Amino acid sequence: MSSPVNHLLKKLIHFEKSQVTAVYIQISQQIINAIQRGYLIEGTALPGTRILSNLLAINRNTAVAVYEELASQGWVEIMPNKGTFILMPEQKTARIKATSQGLEKLHDYPKTTGFPFQSSFNLASTEEIAVNKYVINDGQPDLRLHPTHQFSRWYSASMKRASLISKWNQTNEQSATTFNLHLSNYLNATRGFHIKPQNIMSTRSTEMSLYIVSQILIKQADVVLVADLSHYKSNMIFQQAGANIITIPVDEHGIDVDYIKMHFTKRSIRCVYVCAHRHYPTTVTLSAERRLKLLQLAKTYQFAIIEDDFDYDFQFNGSAMLPMASSDAYGVVIYLGKLGQSFFPSFQIGFVVAPETIINEAKNYLQILDKQGDLIQKQMLSELISEGEIHRLIKKNITVYKQRRDYLCKTLQAHFNSIATWELPAGGLAIWLQFEPHISLVELANKAKKNDLFLPKTILYQNKNICAIRLGFGHLNETDIGIVVQKLKTSYNLVVS
Q: For residue 437, is the peptide bond before it cis, meaning its omega torsion is within 30 degrees of 0?
């Protein structure tokens, strides 16, 4: 007669071989669940591996793996020549017994602190939750273009490197220097730099880079100049550092450098933040003439230039304009960039290029925030740089993004020709869509949301002179673009009707 335990296991355990989780893990988890629920009590003998394999129609090696997994977690004891028996793992941490009232609240974690603290208004999250099928962002890459299968091989190969463990155990900067050497060589070749590894520091993101730089540069009430329209995240970071943010005008040639010269004096400015290659959010490029003026003014007025080059890799027409940092003979530019934007976000990195004294100080902050970084990521990126894979992937994706840009403009021409204007950007993954006459963008976003299209507030720009959207298209294929533009036009019609 079949054992009651066998009957119970056959009834309780179900698994899917098609799942990512291994079969032996699925079975182990379900046996643990049965123990926790009291279906299998302490001391119960489990069937042998041969019987279990027949019972569940699994390989006997899988049955062995199930019991070994349970034993490793302390749920069973395997006794040679006797069998496998259920254990009840000891509770390692004793519960604190209350001596006052409120026993029912003892195991509810408190929602508020028992001490005062000051929350940060400047760092309040701008994230909005939406369940809409279609979303417009500010110009993010399409993760569907990520080479998943290739990436798995690259990652696996990096994990198997014999030198990886030794790098983890190193207390010097040898491994970081190797990566920085590859990265500096890549930037020298692609951005016209003449830097060495000691001029560069890699971080988790551009935001981390800017946060560290702001901690070094900015003291309370220091003047930081940003464009009249600027990146909200950078402004949050400057405000948190205590900066006095002052805006300067932007036109079709970028920020107005003459305005700085007319309204400020020597040593009255701490730094100027600029997206010289493609201004955020309008996508205009800072002209060569103004770049030279800004470099000279920084030398004369003794302020730093923070050059954020967040989308240098996405250039469609002609050659990308080289960063100001590549022409910096005075040591006034701190350059922020990204690498690996065609990968999943977890394998994108930020980096800082600056004079060695700034990098040395920045590393003091980095060793507190993220001392070692992701060595596997650096190992893999080093190899992809040296083998030319990153360059090839960027070239391949640029073709796709250029087609999407052109299709978006064609679709906008069909639906928004007489009610909005836009420029065909030479690069980047967003366009600057300006409505004329002005409408309520908040109302447009509300109507769009009801039409299954989400417009986050961070891409809406409206004041008495401006009514525009930074419309990101990188994450949308041509089918998506057609649907999104149609939904946007339907929502627009509801606003103006």
A: yes
